[in-house]
Amino acid sequence: MSGKFPIQPIGRFAGASQPVKRPKEFACFSYDDNHEFHLDDSSIRYYYTPRLGADLSKGYESFQKLDDSKDGHLDALLKTIMAYESEQGKNIDAEIITWRGMMTKILGAPFENFDGFEMNATLYQGSIFIEENHAYKVASKEAQHQQQQNRSRRGPPPEVMSYWGYKFETLSTLPSIWAETSRDYIEAREDHIVNNKAQYCSVVRTGIGSSILCLGGEVDAIWDSKPVEHGKPINWVELKTSLEIRGAKDMEIFHRKLMKFWIQSFLLGVPKIVVGFRDRDGFLVKVDEIETQRIPQTINATPNPSWNADLCVNFAGTFLEWLKQTINDEGVWRIRRLPQTPEIEVFKVEETGHGDILSEEFKNSRIKL
Ligand code: A3P
Ligand code: MG
Ligand code: MG
Q1: Could you tell me the distance, in angstroms and rounded to a whole number, from the CA of residue 275 to the centre of ligand 2?
Q2: Complex ipTM, two decimals?
């Protein structure tokens, strides 16, 4: 059953927020410096205040950059779920299983009019698995690159600006808690090679409206250390860089950016966002700690709020209910929002099977219902 879900008018999603569940981590995995998968927390990083004045461009020539041209599908997430299910002797109860990034796009859709998205989805044993449509991601990255090339711009190239974000992560984190990190390591932080192949990913169970979700996503750092007891809130830290705010216009842009920061962090239950403000040349000028849960009220208190958190949640809750009705039999489905259009379309692209969304390994391992 294909269909279209209208985004506009968004007024129908206004009002008190549908219920949300606090995300609880039930599993995690790591990619190491070679981007190899490990079913553990080995790549977790510990937050440590960076030095103001640091040069975020430093070391760009030795950047160990992840090659993201390969389509990883949901593989790492599925491996982690598989291990958890075999340990528990039962399948997880999530109705929607996906990367956090996909849900970020959905929650932001009511206030995001320019960017489109494409995802593939399949129903298997009662759960809808959603991946990003890799071909679309590659094409839109290429288009964005072209745009940046065409625009006559001052300042550093976009590759260097993207490096700044990873450099900030390296400057603000340690591989072990402070007390167990050598003075030499801490002092040499600004010279460490930046490598974005390593990642720690949290896998959580959460709920939006009437839907139970399992989301996997990267977390940048932890404030203290992981609680021993499972299911306890974890003091995760999301790291972000942003241009320093020097006037009303900058503030308006920053408030808009806070929507993505908030959605991304809210979905995994990340309580704190540390923003490294930089100047136009990429020098760190200020560091701010922002509590994720306070962002919605900060925005609501502005004279003309550019977005609303409750509305994002209500939109997603209603959309997911509709999605569960729509994706009701086998095959591969496309979930698509064309740029600058007021609706999300869902239609079948393969009549049977699950495409490449689900690995053979995962399908075979699942406990049969
Ligand atoms: P900033 O967010 O500080 O710019 P994340 O914040 O999601 O953990 O991502 C870490 C960094 O990856 C970003 O840091 C940015 O440098 C880079 N990055 C993420 N998404 C990007 C995109 N769409 N284009 C370019 N760089 C991106
Ligand atoms: Mg990150
Ligand atoms: Mg970050």
Answers
A1: 12
A2: 0.96
